[in-house]
């Protein structure tokens, strides 16, 4: 946040770079506190200091309410599953109906291409609020609990091989279909369809999440084959530890590249791949530096103090038990005397 407000303007030069970075100043001066409190997705959502940090607020809020569902799933599984289903259905139906009533088209930043179509970005709370994003989060909670019960041998794993094969075909088809339809729907020349666009807005994320959940479940239960071996490759672990840092820095990187251009860019597929590769390398390099200098030291300090507190609590409990035993022995001796 401080970097975006004070130092980003010096990264490069360009005809629109200073103006674009200057647009950070007002949100950072007036609404910096919404980012610190993780409420920027609801409070002034169209004036976020670091534009992509709204998802941190969204993720924070979702994790606050997660224990409610986890406790119910553990204590009252039937009630927990019913609550999950009701909330998922309400979120999906609400997103679909809202898109229909407001005639929201699908796609990302469609207003940049044409003024005749609206997207959920036209209403920042609809795009950034958890009420229309909670469905996929709850699917993840349900999947996690299901995997947990399977590993604890509390769930029946007697599923036929044919059913697993059908599941793979269906899930793969849905994943491919969502990606293919997305390409069509985000086309600037696509005209708003009063029934297709709202359905896509409401169902695309949940369908993709359900299909991906099947892949995870199948790999967990040993039906992933080569895909499970690939996804379990140990080389992904160090990269996975850097993904949060990449998320934080990637936006500023390609924004600098886009708005810092001083001459028109001749677009081609090879050039795009080259630029994408550069963005990945730079983002992961900066993320690695942040991981070594910031994230790891902070995690170790937190672990140290938490362990220290546990040790102090353990020592206090030991002293209390020792005092209790001493007093008990003393009283017994007095009674014997």
Describe the protein.
The chain is mostly helical and 337 residues long. 72% of the residues lie in helices and 1% in strands. It has 13 helices and two strands, in the order αααααββαααααααα. Strands 1-2 form a two-stranded parallel ribbon. α4 (54-75) packs across α7 (134-151), α5 (77-102) packs antiparallel against α7 (134-151) and α12 packs antiparallel against α13. The chain is globular and about 65 Å long. The protein starts with a helix and ends with a helix.
Task: Report the C-alpha radius of gyration, rounded.
Answer: 26 Å
N-to-C span: 73 Å
Give the helix proportion (percent range): over 70%
Backbone shape: globular
Number of helices: 13
Q: Please give the number of β-strands.
A: 2
Low-confidence stretches: 108-115, 318-337
User: Largest beta sheet: what is the strand line-up?
Assistant: 1-2
Largest sheet: 2 strands, parallel
Q: How much strand? A: under 5%
Query: What string gives the helices and strands in order?
Result: HHHHHEEHHHHHHHH
Mean pLDDT: 78
Derived from helix and strand composition plus strand pairing, the structural class reads mainly alpha
Protein name: Acyltransferase 3 domain-containing protein
GO molecular function: acyltransferase activity, transferring groups other than amino-acyl groups
Region (Disordered): 317-337
Organism: Graphocephala atropunctata
